[in-house]
């Protein structure tokens, strides 16, 4: 049997790659100890991974006895991820426009490219922008895309100003590239990114992303699993009776009032252990006072911990990395790294 068709060898290769990805560096004796594989097997696997430029020989480490041993490091620049975030542009005048934030990161999350591009009015222009970045000098392994809209089976079911409704974005992207693409709602990505970075993924969480002069996005997370509902519409807050016929809040006071009512509703319905709230331009103390003074919340038996995410872009970037790696051996886990 050819080595590339040997399932046991392929399993061992995956295990060894995942090990060094997490450890960052190791000598062969440590690989033998950590994997339980034989010295002969480790020697053969390491030789192959060095040849493929996945492992790099770093230096020699003097042992307590015997000759120095070669130290191997993981090559995080072996491949890269393209992370694309369509989000509302910050504006002192509260004008509502979108922008596209584009990052290329290596397997360790180091940013090689970070650009901001005004969002084009035509979705075909967005495809051209993505096409431009996947043909740069970096070997893109996966693409992660997030936008202000609910997605179900690649089709956007509800979105910012209804701009993307019914757009089969996954199908359109596959016309320009065979690179695997993962697409998810911005509130989900913000919540997951914050939880991953702060080791909260084993909790029950409600995430609320509430930009100025906009309707909020909601995420329901149960021990690391997103609860998305039928057609991805679970928690779509603009369909709450209290908000369906209302315009987006025009003042900070109106926004924090809505926010406290939303927290009370989801605390009663979901009873999460944690709320993660992202409303970067609103004063945190103002939000805390309004939520703390909500009489409905004070009477409810569930007493969640409330976190305020003050770095939305960082959470989005981490969330997109989680999205593109969650089903791979390179799944990010800040607690282990």
Automatic annotation (TrEMBL):
Family: Belongs to the ROK (NagC/XylR) family.
Pfam families: ROK
Keywords noted in UniProt: Carbohydrate metabolism, Xylose metabolism
Presence of the UniProt keyword Mitochondrion in the record: no
GO terms classed as biological process: D-xylose metabolic process
Protein name as annotated: ROK family protein
InterPro entries assigned to the protein according to its UniProt record, in alphabetical order: ATPase_NBD, ROK, WH-like_DNA-bd_sf, WH_DNA-bd_sf
């Amino acid at each position: 049997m050819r080595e590339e068709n040997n399932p046991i060898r392929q399993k061992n290769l995956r295990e060894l790659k995942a090990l060094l990805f997490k450890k960052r560096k190791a000598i062969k004796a440590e690989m033998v100890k950590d994997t339980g594989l034989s010295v002969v097997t480790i020697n053969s696997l390491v030789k192959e991974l060095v040849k493929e430029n996945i492992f790099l020989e770093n230096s020699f480490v003097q042992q307590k006895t015997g000759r120095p041993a070669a130290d191997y490091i993981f090559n995080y620049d072996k491949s890269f991820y393209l992370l694309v975030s369509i989000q509302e542009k910050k504006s002192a005048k509260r004008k509502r426009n979108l922008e596209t934030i584009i990052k290329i990161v290596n397997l360790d999350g180091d940013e090689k490219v970070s650009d901001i591009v005004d969002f084009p009015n035509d979705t075909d222009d967005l495809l051209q922008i993505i096409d431009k970045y996947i043909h740069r000098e970096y070997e893109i392994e996966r693409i992660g895309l997030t936008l202000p809209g609910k997605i179900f089976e690649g089709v956007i079911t509800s979105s910012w100003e209804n701009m993307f409704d019914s757009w089969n974005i996954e199908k359109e992207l596959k016309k320009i590239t065979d690179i695997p693409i993962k697409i998810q709602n911005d509130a989900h990505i913000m919540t997951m990114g914050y939880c991953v970075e702060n080791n909260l993924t084993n909790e029950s969480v409600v995430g609320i992303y509430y930009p100025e002069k906009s309707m909020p996005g909601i995420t329901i997370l149960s021990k690391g699993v997103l609860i998305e509902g039928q057609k991805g519409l679970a928690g779509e807050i603009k369909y709450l009776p209290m908000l369906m016929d209302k315009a987006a809040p025009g003042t900070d006071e109106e926004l924090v009032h809505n926010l406290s009512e939303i927290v009370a509703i989801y605390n009663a319905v979901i009873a999460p252990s944690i709320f993660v709230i992202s409303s970067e331009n609103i004063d945190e103390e103002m939000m805390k006072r309004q939520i703390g003074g909500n009489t409905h919340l004070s009477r409810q038996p569930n007493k969640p911990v409330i976190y305020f995410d003050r770095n939305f872009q960082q959470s989005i970037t981490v969330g997109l990395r989680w999205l593109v790696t969650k089903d791979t051996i390179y799944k990010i886990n800040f607690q282990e790294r």
